[in-house]
Amino acid sequence: MAYKSLLTIAASPEGLLAPVSAAAQIAVRTDAHLDALALGVDRTQVGYSYVGSGAVMIAAAMDRAEAEAREAEAALNAALGSQSPDLRYGVESVVTQLGALTDVVAARARYADLVVLPLPYGKTRGVEDEALTEAALFEGMAPVLVVPEAGMKSSDPRRIVVAWNQSREALVAARRSMPFLRRAENVQIVVIDPPSHGPERSDPGGLLCQYLVRHGVRAEVTVLAKSLPRVSDVLARHLRDVDAEMLVMGAYGHSRFREAIMGGATRDMLEGAQIPVFLAH
User: For the segment 186-198, what is each residue's pLDDT rounded down to a tens digit?
Assistant: First the structure.
């Protein structure tokens, strides 16, 4: 599968340059169209209030959200206008309440081959950044490339690490990232502390390696011991050791009132990510 329809989303002007630049570079290389969505989010939750004050609060919040959407749209147009003249893109602006954000994002992510977003955690990120990442992954059913502030070194990462634990999510991530994997010089399938029982006990990661090689991927398996308290710490250290340029992993979460909340392993990797992280659920 090729990436022919890309999506990037900005809920504020801050921190959008890295993901927008990465999305633009990928779009040009793959001859894809890039859709950019500027979001203005009404974050108010009007509950008990004095009579008549609720309408005033809602109106003020919506005015603020519309202003933020205009700012994000202007920043997106400026960032995209400075990219390659070969880039094909469109910019749309939408205002939504925080509670309806999932539906707005999912409706667009479902028709994108890849969604490129900034890190959802950090000093300049808000609650809406995590919500839109989860919406694209869990409700939009789209793979998401999360780009840190340092940006993406190349639209063709040379060294990619695939985090493998035999789960459905990890397999989906490996398959959806195939356009990146096939162009990489080296793909490491990293297995941390493999189980002593199960179908892959004698050859951890072997079946996935065989599958990728048959698709023309230069893949190999690396088995690591869990020498640190958290699996995410072991994986992060290995990424630094091999100078990886992208991490591919399954996105894990659990349901809370019909909203998918990113689980601990996914959150741990994103909070400290120094390179782009490709996620799929």
Answer: 999 999 999 877 7
What SS3 string covers 211-238? HHHHCCCCEEEEEECCCCCCHHHHHHHH
For 251, residues 6+ apart whose C-beta sits below 8 A from its C-beta are: 137, 138, 144, 169, 173, 262, 266, 279, 280, 281
What's the pLDDT at 126?
Answer: 80
What is the token pair recorded at 47?
């509950």
Between CA 262 and CA 226 the distance in angstroms is 22
Report the alpha-carbon distance of residue 260 to residue 272 in Å, rounded: 21
Cα 185 from Cα 159, distance rounded (Å):
6
Across-strand partners of 96? 41
How far apart are the C-alpha atoms of 232 and 226, rounded to whole Å? 10
For the full predicted model, state whether its pTM sits above 0.85: yes
Asked whether the beta carbons of 108 and 47 are under 8 A apart, the reply is no
Confidence of residue 52 (pLDDT cuts 50, 70, 90): low
Q: What angle do CA 215, 190, 188 make, to 5 degrees?
A: 45
Name the strands in the sheet holding 246-250, side by side, starting at the edge strand that comes first in the sequence: 88-97, 33-42, 5-10, 114-118, 144-147, 277-280, 246-250, 159-163, 186-192, 219-224
69 three-class SS? helix
* End-to-end Cα, the chain, rounded Å: 17
pLDDT tens figures, 90-100: 999 999 998 89
Q: Are 157 and 184 in contact (CB under 8 A)?
A: yes
- Look up residue 18 and give its two tokens: 């890295």
